[in-house]
Amino acid sequence: MLPFKPITIDDKELITKFTLPSGYMNCDYAFANMCSWQFFYHSEYAIQDDFLFIRFFLDGHKSYMLPVGKGYIKQAIEILEKETKTDNHRLCISGVTPEAKIQLEETYPNGFRYITERDFFDYIYLREDLQFLKGKKYQPKRNHINKFKNLYNYDYRPITREMIPLCMELECKWYQANKTDEDIEDLRHENQSMVYALNHFDELNLIGGVIIVNDEIVAFTYGSPVNLETFAVHVEKADVKYEGIFSLINQEFVTHLPEQYKYINREEDLGIPGLRQSKLSYNPAILLEKNTAIKR
């Protein structure tokens, strides 16, 4: 049996030693996501034979992420197969990208069946596209930003610990203005994850930024690395009465990120029509397909 234990902040260095150099772009490998959503997914990890294994639980079902390591993937899958046989259930691997699917098929020809999950595809952009918004396809974004700048004087600042209570105040306003009977539970979970992340901002090594108008925070965002070249934006909240505010904070935040990040992962759309339209409007360089692989 693998020595699984719950993921905590204390495990950050151990887990990111595997994930950051891996090249995996899937936002689920961002440590801050694993940690801040642990209350919901009950995520656990184990290390064996130079592989990192991560499993989580959803609706009573146990699933695994693709193991991360430098060895042969066959060796890692065999370890997982032994693990699942003791539980008497089929091996289920979530978040399998096309590259990982090829790897699995080469190792286990027709050994898995795949379920494509469009609602959980990651939207990945070139950092320079979001920063400079060049060309005709980004004209609407530039128009929104210019309109905002013509109407308001603003400051962009990195999030500091002193700002966190003010960010939470804005989140409460956003929650009250946007909640519906259909999504109230999802928004509560998002809020719980956000509260945890903001209260452990430094320990998670999050990077964030705010837009300030008339000494008031009107937008905030934060995220963390997925790998050494890919940065994930976990949260973006704003007062929608300021037209163009989302386009502005998106551009400002990306502009102020460390230069090492070539790709920006703005995560999934969860099947929400407005969110999907918004993410597509930024013209992703990669729409990262994710599948669930179930062992036959």
What can you tell me about this protein's structure?
It contains eleven helices and 15 strands. It has 296 residues and is an alpha+beta fold. The strands form two sheets. Strands 1, 2, 3, 4, 5, 6, 7 and 15 form an eight-stranded mixed sheet that branches. The model has no long low-confidence stretch (mean pLDDT 94).
Shape: globular
User: What class, by secondary structure content?
Assistant: alpha+beta
Note the run of SSEs as H and E: EHHHEEEEHEHEEHHEHHEEEHEHEE
Instruction: Work out the helix count.
Output: 11
Which residue ranges are poorly predicted, with pLDDT under 50 across at least 5 consecutive positions? none
Distance N to C terminus = 21 Å
Most strands sheet: 8 strands, mixed
Percentage of residues in strands: 25-35%
Mean of all residue-level pLDDT scores? 94
Number of strands: 15
Q: If you compute it from the alpha carbons, what radius of gyration comes out, rounded to the nearest whole angstrom?
A: 20 Å
How much helicity do the residues have? 25-40%
Quick recap of the structure?
38% of the residues lie in helices and 26% in strands. With 296 residues, the chain is of the alpha+beta class.
Topology:
Layout: E1 5-6, H1 12-19, H2 31-36, H3 38-41, E2 44-48, E3 51-58, E4 61-65, E5 68-69, H4 73-87, E6 92-96, H5 98-107, E7 112-116, E8 122-126, H6 127-132, H7 139-151, E9 155-158, H8 164-178, H9 184-199, E10 207-213, E11 216-225, E12 230-238, H10 245-256, E13 263-265, H11 273-280, E14 286-288, E15 291-295
Parallel strand pairs: 4-6, 12-13
Antiparallel strand pairs: 1-2, 2-3, 3-4, 3-5, 6-15, 7-15, 8-13, 8-14, 9-10, 10-11, 11-12
Helix pairs in contact: 8-9
